[in-house]
Write a structure and sequence with these properties.
The chain is α+β, with helices and mostly antiparallel strands and about 120 residues long. It has a single domain (about 5-120), classed as Nuclear Transport Factor 2, Chain: A, CATH 3.10.450.50. Helices cover about 25% and strands about 50% of the residues. About 20% of the residues are buried.
């Protein structure tokens, strides 16, 4: 079993560094955010992250529960956004991460209802 530094992962996400975020993924890694189409490969994943960061001034994750079972990580938490409009939005999320043998993300699926974010 490969250990994954979830705390460091969310520190990078919350630092709004799209290129650094993409380095957690395998070259052919995949990310699915809510019901959006899957993004495959580090470049596409960095672009997805950047498109989110461009809409916000700040992001912060609170991990409530996290469990690793072999190469899978299950994580429950709340994410807090400060949008460029000044609106603050907090949403519950659940993620499922699959790790490759090198400990990189081969798959990262974010289960969240982003409707309140877009309505704020």
């Amino acid at each position: 079993m490969t250990n994954f530094d979830l705390e460091q992962f969310y520190r990078v996400v919350d630092g709004m560094e799209s290129e650094a975020f993409s380095k957690f993924f395998a070259d052919d890694g995949e990310m699915v955010f809510a019901n959006a189409s899957p993004m495959k490969g580090r470049n596409a994943i960095a672009q997805l992250a950047q498109s989110i960061y461009e809409q916000i001034d700040k992001i912060a994750h609170d991990v409530l529960n996290a469990h690793q079972v072999e190469n899978k990580i299950y994580c429950e938490g709340r994410v807090h956004y400060l949008k460029k409009s000044g609106a603050e939005v907090s949403l519950g999320f659940m993620t499922l991460m699959d790790l490759d043998p090198e400990g990189l993300l081969s798959s990262y699926r974010v289960y969240i209802d982003p409707t309140p974010f877009f309505q704020a």
